Each structure stands twice: as C-alpha cells, then as structure tokens.
Amino acid sequence: MVYRYKCPVWFKTTINCSNHKCKKYTYIALHPSLIVTYSCISPVSTLQNKENYEPRGFQRPILLLYLVTKHQLFHRKITIDDFDIGRPLGKGKFGNVYLARVKKLQAIVALKVLFKSQMEKEGVEHQLRREIEIQAHLKHPNILRFYNYFHDRKRVFLVLEYAPRGEMYKELQRCGRFDDQRSATYMEEISDALMYCHEKKVIHRDIKPENLLLGYRGELKIADFGWSVHAPSLRRRTMCGTLDYLPPEMIEGHTHSEKVDLWCIGVLCYECLVGNPPFETASHSETYKRIMKVDLKFPRIVSEGAKDLISKLLRHNPTDRLSLQSVIDHPWVKANSRRCLPPICPTKSSETN
C-alpha cells in the first residue's frame, strides 16, 4: 500500500532493478507528486568526479528500509556542503543546472546554480524572487517540485526535483514530432497542472517545450516559473513569454488573463504534432502578423480531432478559447491520452466502507 503524505518522503530499499546485469541495491524516491520512481545510485567517490554521471548503484545488496521526512533537510539551513555534485544537466544565461545528491538522505535532486552578478546585470532579481515564491507553494504531479534555496556571496542555489528524461524540447528535436497518443497525454497533463495553477491565481505565461521537463515515466512537468505571476485579479499587462507562443492580446499590449495559457497550450499541441510552432516564419514581423490574423494552417499529418482541439484553443478573442477542463474532456484527448495518475491513499472513511 502506498500512502499519501503531505511532504516529500524518501524510501531506501532493495528491489529488483530493471537492468538484469545490476544486482545492487536501488532507491525508490516517493516525491510529493506521488509518482513512485526508482534509479540505481552510484558510490559517492565516483559521483563527484564524473561529468557523465548517471545513477548506477551501490556495490553490495542490502535489505534496508529508511524513512526521511522533509523537515530533516528542508526546514533547516543548508549549504553546498550538504550535496555531492554530479554531471551538468543544462546551461542557461544566468548559470547551470547539475545533478546532485543530498548526502544525508541519499536523495537525487537537481541543483540550479545562478550567478548573482549576471542576474543583477540583467535586472532580473525580482523575477527570481517571484519564481521562488510561486513555485515553492505549488504541489502537483505535473509541476516540478521546488524544495529549498540557499545562497553564498556570488551564487544562488535552487534545490529542485530531478526529472530524469530531461527537456521536452530536446526530446522533440530527437523525435521530430510526437504521435497522437503522446501529444494527447501531454495535453491532459499540462491542462490539469494549469487548472491547479489558475485555481491558485497563478498564470504561467511562458509555456513552451524548453520549459517542460519529463519525469521518470515520461510524465510532463512544468519547470520554469520565471515569467509566472501570482495575480489575484488574474489581469496583467506585462509583455513576456516567447515570440512563437505570444497570444494576440499580449502583442496588442492589452491586459491579459489566465487565458494566455490556453493559447500557449494550443501552440504547444501543434508543435508536438508537427515539429514546429504554427506561426513560425523567417522574420519577427511576419510571425506577429500571422499571430494577429490567427493564420493557422495544418499539414496532412494532423488528425481531424487534433485540428478541432487546436482550432478551439487558438482563438483571437480570449473568451472564445476552450477551457482547460474542456481540453481534458475533448474527444481526441480522451481517445488518445495514456496518462498514468499517481497512487492515491484510501481515506479512513473509504476503508471503513
């Protein structure tokens, strides 16, 4: 039986690894998302010196059950000395992301390292504060968990959930495009995650493949909340996001609401199925024009059901766009999605019944 906890819990135990050559003990990480994942962990001595580090496994099988709750690491002050640093996972304008292991918990995380000088130079300190404030309060299986942060004189460190399969963008580049099943699954997952955000009055405003990660089972996780905003009124005017994903109301400089995210997932669905955004052109001005006219053209590979969904999301008038619940209930999504929901602990009342 898997029980639902209100905080992240890590189980360390012996299981049969999917790699038959590996007879070493394995960690099961039960994230707050309640998706049970596992990976083989390598010895500390090899972790620190290998740039191509991937979790592999300890050298001897041990039967052990170990329980560590969130407060033992994340409710106290932490420093870089609490981590073993592995290979780089990605590079950005303001710093890098590394695979890391929490020494005391033997828990695998992603450590985002940002340089203060670079952020000050670009004037984005407020954006980082906003990202931390928003993401720290979001707990959903399709949103990357933010665990903690700390800083030193030169750097800011964000401790994040590790998504083993990396960026959706790189996966899309590798595959060229996704089939209906995979695209519909992503649409259901991201719609559910955004419904959760909107209920908490959070608008993401920058949904795109580069900001989406893939978990152990390939589940989508919204990762970058740098452009997100907590807007109780759900009305904003700031220009933000990526050109190919900008909705008409942002280009026109009008106030915008959570419905900008509906436009973005319409663009995302198209890009997943086709391999490139719907309004992409060689020049910015032409892209702007196509967005304003909603000049939407589908290649033959796109099914009628997918066309219907995308067309109902990419509407010039925000109020005409399909709701997130309607996206989840759309016949094309229902027929093709293979979403795996996290395990749910039965309540006392249900057990009694």
From TrEMBL:
There is a cross-link at residue 208 (Glycyl lysine isopeptide (Lys-Gly) (interchain with G-Cter in SUMO2)). SUPFAM superfamilies: Protein kinase-like (PK-like). This is non-specific serine/threonine protein kinase. It is an enzyme of class 2 (transferase). Its EC number is 2.7.11.1. It comes from the Eukaryota. ATP binds at residues 93, 112, 161-163, 210-211, 224. SMART domains: S_TKc. It holds the Pfam family Pkinase. InterPro entries: Aur-like (IPR030616), Kinase-like_dom_sf (IPR011009), Prot_kinase_dom (IPR000719), Protein_kinase_ATP_BS (IPR017441), Ser/Thr_kinase_AS (IPR008271). Belongs to the protein kinase superfamily. One of its GO terms (molecular function) is ATP binding. PROSITE patterns: PROTEIN_KINASE_ATP (PS00107), PROTEIN_KINASE_DOM (PS50011), PROTEIN_KINASE_ST (PS00108). The active site is at residue 206. It catalyses: L-seryl-[protein] + ATP = O-phospho-L-seryl-[protein] + ADP + H(+); L-threonyl-[protein] + ATP = O-phospho-L-threonyl-[protein] + ADP + H(+). Keywords: ATP-binding, Kinase, Nucleotide-binding, Serine/threonine-protein kinase, Transferase.
